[in-house]
Amino acid sequence: MSDPLQRSHAGRAGDELAVTWLGHSTVLLELDGSRLLTDPVLGARAGPLVRIAPPISEADYEAVDAVLLSHLHGDHADGRSLRWVGRETRVIAPAGARRWLALRGLRNVQELSLGEWTRVGEVAISLTPAVHGGVLHRAARVAPSGFIATGSQTCYFAGDTDLFAGMRTLSGVVDLALLPIGGWGPRLGAGHLDPASAATAAALIAPRVAVPIHWGTLVRAFSAQRGADRGAPARLFAELARRQAPQVQVHVLAPGERLALAPGARPGRIGDARA
Question: pTM of the full predicted structure?
Answer without folding.
Answer: 0.88
